[in-house]
Design brief:
This protein is mostly beta strands and 340 residues long. It is built from 3 helices and 20 strands. This is DUF4179 domain-containing protein.
Amino acid sequence: MIIGSAFVSPTMAESLKQVPLVDSMFKLAGDFGLQTADQKGLATSSNLSVTHSGITLKVPQIIFDGTRLVVALEKSGGDSQHQTLYPAIQTQGQPEEDILEKVDLFINGTSVNSNNGAFNFMYGRPGKDSNSMLIAYMRDPASGKPALPDQFELEVYAKLKGVAEPFRIQTTVHKTKINNKILQLQMSKSNPYLAFTAEKVEITPITTKITTSFKMLTDIAHMPDEYTVKREYNDIKNGQTIQYTKKELDMLDYAVFDEQGRELQLLSGSGVPLTKERNSKMITLFTPFVDTPQKIIFKPYILPTQPGGSALLDANGNWTRHYIDELEITVDVPQHTNRQ
């Protein structure tokens, strides 16, 4: 049975955070956007909870900035030590046993995991401890589907191992009232082989949404070796395996920095593969800027891969970046930008 359903305004949420009974999971999460939202009183606090078989699931905080929906979920009761909600990675690299069998979000009655393609991009992240987690959802911005409305009905669904009845927590979600900076850029840089365009930047205190595109200016046969990889393939003909290689463009991506060299961290994104006949348009979600930037620097790069497809890692175990300096774009940010 749902035992709480009241949501409060951001101002009241800020006051309630001083009360010990109201958790502030966003403040403890390793997500700068959520920490900023918590600090500025933008997150909505609640007492929503459901109890089955001596185990209580609670939704202490929710936020929706028009792009990213994040729900905090916390478990109490039961065997909290050995039946965690979100498993931690042990020293041996194996996750510990968790109690979560399934989690889903229903928006206006439709599962975000449904097969109709209307909803995508839901994932779980660690919370403040192993008995809490964050459920994040972003509608695939490249799907052509309309954005989520400013208000919708949300049901958080969770099935726990050993508990017969699923947990269902329902509420109405409202878009957080925040000012969005929007930069319509359409700025391009190119070399003889590739062109990169920074099209649009949308900045909120919680999420940065960026639209970009790459374009091939020459055939793959004329691409320099540092842009390509000879990919290995196997083909079966007449019962025999034939091995062959094919020259392909390596993976392209870009990094985003402010004028102080602080890089935004990737949250999620989508796009279409780049070919000579088709540009690769990408819509990517990043963490917010620490402060309103004076400049935004886009640094495109190649992500080199091995012939078999595995990543080429550096000494620290990170994917190597080969920056393409000719494609770098620097944008001056007007301090009085149009807002929504």
